[in-house]
Amino acid sequence: MSTTAEVLRLEAAALAGWPPAETARDDGWLLRASGGHTRRVNSVQALVFATGADVGRAVDRVDAWYRARALPPCFQVTDRPSPAALDEFLAGRGYARISPVAVLTRDTAGMEAPRDTRIELDTRPTPRVMNAVCDPLWPPEQRRARAELFARIRRPLAFATALDGPHPVSGALCVVDREVAGLFTLRTATAARGRGHARAVVQRLGAWARGMGAKLLFQQIEEANAPALGLAQQLGFERRYGYWYRELPG
Question: Would the pTM count as exceeding 0.90?
């Protein structure tokens, strides 16, 4: 279990690596919005709350802020929410608990680039990168929104793409925030799974992050994604804490 300080540090790195288009502050909470994209950039980061502030009024303001943007009011609730009873309060307000996520870390020491897989590094989302990290069934607007998110990143980054001949079959993004590096949007094409491509991508990006001065590498994996959790554990990642979302239904 991580301390509050460790959660704050990892969540700060996650914010740098997966930045929303719009933010606002309300009694210490960070409100994030990016239109129809992922919940992380369309939810409240509830890690700090002003002492003595009224939770009910703050939640009402959050509700209005998201509805003004045609988004469902949503909170990202970690194991260290502020205030401490926030999860229970939101449940009482009718917010549904959805999409639990595990945050796992490992030291970058010992991570080496694989030699038996062809992997290319890029510093921008080229068409090859986008084909590796985006589901081919996504509509154009979702793919465009993901490219716009990548363009907002203001930290050192690298995309790793595993190739089978000329074809991208697996890819991920790594973003370095000083001594912490985050691994995002790891994906392998369905037909190429089970061949070690994702493992090679993680190893390559871990080695890159180490070379950039990062000492810790983290991933955020949905708890329902058993294959991804299994791979992370095989690669030496350990669970540090979890988070989930509380979203107000329609």
Answer: yes
Instruction: Report the C-alpha gap between 183 and 172 in whole angstroms.
Output: 7
Q: Are 72 and 36 in contact (CB under 8 A)?
A: no
Tokens representing 247 are 């979203």
The residues that bridge with 160 in the sheet, in sequence order, are 121, 172
Q: Divide the 250 residues of the chain into consecutive groups of 10 and give the mean pLDDT of each group.
A: 89 97 97 89 97 97 97 95 96 98 97 86 96 93 94 98 93 98 96 93 97 98 96 97 94
d(CA 82, CA 187): 33
**Residue among 122, 132, 148 at smallest CA distance from 186:** 132
Q: CA separation (Å) from 95 to 68, 71, 109?
A: 18, 14, 41
Among 58, 88, 86, 62, CA closest to 74: 62
Residue identified by tokens 């009224």 is: 54
**Angstrom distance (rounded) from CA 201 to CA 117:** 9
Do the beta carbons of residue 32 and residue 42 sit within 8 Å?
yes
Check residue 70 and give left, alpha or beta (phi > 0: left; psi -120 to 50: alpha): left
207: enclosing H helix or E strand: helix 197-211
Residues linked to residue 23 through DSSP beta bridges, in sequence order: 32
Distance of CA 17 to the CA centre of its chain: 8
Give me the residue label for tokens 């991580």: 2
